[in-house]
Amino acid sequence: MTTTGRRALLTAGVSAAAAAALSGCTSEEPAPRRPGAAELEAERVARAEAALRLRSVTASRTLLERYDAALAAHPALAPRLNPLRRSVAAHAVALGEGGTTVRPATAAPTGAPSSAAASSPVSASPSTSAKPTASPVPVATDPRAVLRELATAERTASDAHTAALLTAPPEYARLLASVAAAGAAHAYLLTEGARA
After folding, report:
1. CB distance 174 to 103 below 8 Å
2. For residues 187 and 152, what is the distance between their CA atoms, to the nearest angstrom?
3. What sign does the CA torsion over 141, 142, 147, 153 have?
4. Which of 2, 129, 157, 177 is the most exposed place for a label (fewest CB within 10 A)?
């Protein structure tokens, strides 16, 4: 082999090595890592819990709106309804902690408390925030009918919280059980308790 042949062969080898080295520097990013089964399950559980919290908060906020409407229509019921309303407002805040934004749907009506628990938002994603209702909550003209309607709304919210116990994580299930029990007590106080 001649010197020129050896140089050509050597030059070709060096060029090929340099091209290989350079192509390694400019190669595309590696494919993203696929999440494992445990990560996918954790994400599914987190989404399910967030949805559960949103449903629970919505049930309590709907109940709170009913109290606000009742107090606005019947201010004379304030001494009887204000303690229950404060409790419902505290439940809405507690149920929303850790993942759901809760904003007051309406300003506190005349005779309603302006407690911090009823008006302070719970931090989290704005996309899950409760929005004010477009139409006002209908309220009966008879105060006794209003109390019965509120008792029914309390039972409905209590039943929703009780049903959610089956899928709730343990700590949240305990909170839901407490709120459901309080709702049953409120329903009693609004109807049977008044007769005693």
Report:
1. no
2. 7
3. negative
4. 2
pLDDT by residue for the chain (196 residues), tens only, comes to 555 565 655 565 556 555 555 555 555 677 788 878 888 888 988 898 899 999 999 999 999 999 999 999 999 999 999 999 999 999 999 998 865 444 444 434 444 444 333 333 333 333 333 444 445 788 989 999 999 999 999 999 999 999 999 999 999 999 999 999 999 999 999 998 655 4
Instruction: Please choose, from the candidates 10, 126, 122, 11, the residue with its C-alpha nearest in 3D space to the C-alpha of residue 57.
Output: 122
Query: 2-19 burial, b if ≥16 CB within 10 A, otherwise e?
Result: eeeeeeeeeeeeeeeeee
CA geometry: angle 88, 90, 91, nearest 5 deg: 60
The token pair at 38 is: 């445990």
The count of other CB atoms within 10 Å of the CB of residue 65 is 20
Six token digits for residue 94 = 């507690």
Q: 179 with 154: CB under 8 angstroms?
A: no
What tokens appear for 8 in the block? 């050509």
Characterize 97-131 residue by residue with b for buried, 16 or more Cβ atoms within 10 angstroms of its Cβ, and e for exposed. eebbbbebbeebbebbbeeeebeeebebeeebbbe
Residue 148: both structure tokens together: 């019965």
CA 117 to chain centre: 17
